[in-house]
Amino acid sequence: MKIHEYQGKQIFAKYGIPVPKGYPAFSTEEAEAAAKRLIDETGMPVVVVKAQIHAGGRGKGGGVKVVKDGPKKAREAADALLGMQLVTHQTGPAGQKVRRLYIEQGLDIARELYLGMVVDREKKRIAIMASTEGGVEIEKVAAETPEKILTEHIDPALGLGGWQARKLAYGLGIGTGSPKPKETVKQFADIVGKLGRLFEKEDCSLLEVNPLIVTKAGDVIALDSKINFDSNAEGRHPEWNELEDKDEEDAVELEAKEAGLSYINLDGDIGCLVNGAGLAMSTMDIIKHFGGEPANFLDVGGGATKEQVTKAFKIILHSDEVKGIFVNIFGGIMKCDVIAEGVVAAAKEIGLSVPCVVRLEGTNVDLGKKILSESGLKIVPAGTMADGAQKIVQLTRGA
Amino acid sequence: MAILVNKNTRVVIQGITGSAGSFHAKQCVAYGTQIVAGCTPGRGGETFEADGPDGKKVKIPVFDTMADAVKQTGADASCIFVPALGAADSILEAADAGCRLVIAITEGIPVMDMIRARRALEGKNVRLVGPNCPGVITPGECKIGIMPGHIHKPGKIGVVSRSGTLTYEAVGQLTALGIGQSTCVGIGGDPVNGTDFVDVLKMFNEDPNTEGVIMIGEIGGNAEERAAEYIKAHFKKPVAGFIAGTTAPPGKRMGHAGAIISGGKGTAKDKIAALNAAGVKVAPTPSDMGTTLKSML
Lengths: 399, 297
Fold this sequence. Notes:
The complex is a heterodimer.
Chain A (H helix, E strand, L loop, with lengths): L4 H10 L7 E4 L2 H15 L4 E6 L11 E4 L3 H11 L3 E2 L9 E2 L2 E6 L3 E12 L4 E7 L6 H7 L4 E6 L7 H11 L8 H21 L2 E12 L4 E3 L3 E4 L10 H4 L7 H8 L3 E4 L4 E5 L2 H13 L6 E4 L6 H12 L6 E8 L4 H15 L5 E7 L2 H9 L5 E4 L2 H14 L1
Helix pairs in contact in A: 2-3, 5-6, 10-11, 11-12
Chain B lengths: L9 E5 L4 H13 L2 E6 L7 E5 L5 E7 L2 H8 L3 E4 L3 H14 L3 E4 L6 H11 L5 E3 L5 E4 L3 E4 L8 E8 L2 H13 L4 E6 L10 H10 L5 E7 L4 H12 L4 E6 L23 H10 L3 E2 L6 H6 L3
């Protein structure tokens, strides 16, 4: 689960991690008022108007505007940003609509650094990465100059050691150029330690501060925040409900999630209904292999009911792009006759207007096939995954 | 032979009174697995009944704690169906009780819980398989988990996979070709798990009853690349492979918590290239896993 920059900064503040002063705004009026308040409070004329979307690269995409001439200008900047389709390297070509802004005080930046935390699967630990190359795409730094990224792993029994934080601080040369180098190192180490605790306590799956800045006065401040939560921990974080921004999610994917289905929208025209994530992914692959384009990833799970299968059909047919459906089930615990009944019920209820190929294998397969063949529906049976994929590609190409 | 489990394995089901736990406990007993105990706090003293493969009733005692279950029954393995937020705790309880093998079926355990659990298991003589996996089966001897027993056939091919239904797909193909399996291991679809490909490949390498392996990976992480390195350097038997997710878009979690391409890393293309370079024959489609392996025997 992703949250906005300003929400992340509110969490940072709770942990005592220094962030610039700022206020969220949902309209141009709120943006102007926020700018005025900031200028009054800080006595400084510079504010930054930042688009809030769940994607990185906002600065480069034109979603961050520095305003030096007062609240009215901030309002103009807000007016330009609100409602725009912001395209960044993480949004895809369609971009993401800007609905929220964050108005923040401007700061005198001396240095921009990168701090990131992820789960290192191989080491089974949280990895904390720091780099002098802040403010840019860290993927590029990792690919082109990996030596510029310093990494420490957090022992979950001990937490991040002070020595590790200092190792990163001196490794980055964080004190260099600061008017108070010792204090700068201390502040950095303090922030890194707090981020480590935050990551663990708040059940994050990814955390980035890009950039983490050193001001001309030598103070270390988190100028950005990106936090992803581990969805598996949702059950012990009721507060996440309020942080969720449903406008940032795909409406159909959200609908599927609420029905207990795992669904991801894709660009193709062949809908897929499969049980199991691995089988669902490889069903997409095999459609592509035989020259088709999958319209979606859809895993109905191990114990889907007739109602869920019906819902899955509806979700797939949501899109006008879908020219055919491939149902691919390996019934293990899930019985093929149950799936077949679900398919028949859904087809009758919705009125199946596109070709549908069904491949059933596993428990009660004969019974399942019988239900399909006696249903009177135009369902094309398939013997194997390959057979089914070829058939659906052929049928949709002809259509 | 075979690996990890056989007809002598004595199993406790943690969460045996829950809906998933009780259903699958019955399926395992019907397959012939020695389920010797159940564990659910607050339900100690109850008896869980199931039908054995011969139709005879099997009475399984339920205990409040794993320490009691293991002490009273001499169980050496555990299978976990406990709900996600309590599952990591159950893993540690099984390890503390002395189980040498802990198989966690539960899906949706927070990654932080798994990081702590892995740390706590360091240096202990216990193997964790999963979580978020179908389990382990040695056909004809012992089934611990949720896989459909009837599609399997005793034989000499090992199967190791991150995905449940895709494992069934491979096993179904092998059985249809008349090729049996030594042991099938689901290592699970989570980013932090107990056993990875290399661990299982090492066991298959040492197992005289395993003559070849099907290895099924998917996008996300670099476990397949590490397996490829190991295969290239040490593995003595033919390996057929498959990687799911060639068409998966980057940045999207494809059902499994661990199946995500992030920052351009963990693509199917990279994994297939690594496996090919290690001499693994990668099946062009998931329908060809069985025939690909057969062509190497």
